[in-house]
């Protein structure tokens, strides 16, 4: 029998007004509640981090875009940055109308992607507003901290091994690395013209142990800067998060919409000779009307010179 621990439901929740105020703070930080705010909330309400984390779940769900299911899921990663500071990284599901259901972004993927792209080095806990589906359990099994982090549901707490026993994971494909514990980067892109450095470094930071297709997407907006997405693969392949899904999720966590009024341009960069993201990206974008055309760039990789 799994040793699941049933906890008593916490009576604490934020009022509608407090939720709205926190929503605006998180939106301003593009889907992150910084450590100083987390500490201030714990102190203000005299509650431990877990209680504040769970109380934030309805706010995370406010970022969901679920035109098909109308089922709004919130997830939050409690993670540590390189300095050991503890931030909340929010996530929510994103659905695409008129497209295959398999293209949706799940809330847990969104939160983990948000933490990964924004400097989290260690995942301590993941809180979710509803039980994680099998796909998300598999996605979480790709994480470096898969055996240690706590999964907090509104009234229960688990370890991943309890929810996903006898798991198939990276090691089964001979991959010794994992998401948040990447292989040393031995490549660079062979760039001949001036190029967006951040898009290049995003693509090189992609977690692509199975395809080798280093790829990233940049969504430029008219007034709110650029949003980047990175390709994150999974040993079971299907739960992999495409760079476009990753970038769209980041844009929604800033409270923005994929509309022609917001989006100025969309660029996909991937490894020449390994391209497999173009059609998937086009399929997702076909869900929207009147967006600028996807710019697709393929560059060859070169081995970095060895430093002696
Ligand atoms: Zn899921």
From TrEMBL:
PROSITE patterns: CYT_DCMP_DEAMINASES_1, CYT_DCMP_DEAMINASES_2. Residues 48-171, 190-308 form the CMP/dCMP-type deaminase domain. GO terms for molecular function: cytidine deaminase activity. CDD domains: cytidine_deaminase (cd01283). The keyword Phosphoprotein does not apply. Its EC number is 3.5.4.5. It is an enzyme of class 3 (hydrolase). Keywords: Hydrolase, Metal-binding, Zinc. Pfam families: dCMP_cyt_deam_1 (PF00383), dCMP_cyt_deam_2 (PF08211). InterPro entries: APOBEC/CMP_deaminase_Zn-bd (IPR016192), CMP_dCMP_dom (IPR002125), Cyd/dCyd_deaminase_Zn-bd (IPR013171), Cyt/Deoxycyt_deaminase (IPR050202), Cytidine_deaminase-like (IPR016193). Homodimer. Belongs to the cytidine and deoxycytidylate deaminase family. PANTHER family: CYTIDINE DEAMINASE. This is Cytidine deaminase. It comes from Pseudoalteromonas haloplanktis (Alteromonas haloplanktis).
């Amino acid at each position: 029998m799994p040793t699941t621990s049933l906890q008593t439901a916490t009576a604490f929740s934020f009022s509608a007004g407090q939720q709205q105020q926190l929503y605006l703070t998180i939106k301003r930080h593009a889907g992150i509640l910084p450590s100083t705010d987390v500490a201030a909330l714990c102190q203000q309400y005299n509650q431990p981090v877990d209680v504040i984390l769970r109380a934030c779940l309805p706010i995370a769900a406010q970022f969901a875009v679920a035109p098909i299911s109308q089922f709004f899921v919130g997830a939050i990663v409690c993670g540590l940055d390189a300095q050991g500071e503890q931030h909340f990284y929010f996530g929510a599901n994103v659905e695409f109308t008129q497209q295959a259901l398999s293209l949706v972004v799940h809330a847990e993927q969104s939160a983990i992607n948000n933490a990964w792209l924004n400097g989290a080095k260690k995942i301590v806990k993941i809180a979710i507003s509803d039980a994680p589906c099998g796909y998300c359990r598999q996605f979480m099994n790709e994480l470096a901290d898969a055996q240690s982090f706590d999964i907090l549901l509104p009234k229960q707490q688990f370890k991943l091994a309890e929810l996903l026993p006898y798991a198939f994971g990276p090691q089964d494909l001979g991959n010794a690395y994992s998401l948040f514990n990447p292989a040393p980067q031995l490549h660079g892109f062979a760039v001949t013209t001036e190029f967006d450095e951040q898009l290049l470094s995003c693509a090189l930071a992609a977690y692509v142990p199975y395809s080798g297709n280093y790829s990233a997407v940049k969504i430029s907006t008219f007034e709110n800067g650029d949003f980047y997405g990175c390709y994150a693969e999974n040993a079971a392949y299907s739960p992999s998060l495409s760079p476009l899904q990753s970038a769209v999720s980041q844009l929604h966590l800033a409270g923005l919409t994929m509309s022609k009024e917001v989006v100025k341009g969309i660029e996909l960069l991937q490894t020449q000779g390994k391209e497999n993201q173009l059609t998937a990206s086009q399929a997702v974008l076909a869900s929207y009307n009147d967006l600028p055309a996807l710019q697709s760039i393929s560059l060859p990789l070169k081995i970095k010179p060895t430093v002696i």
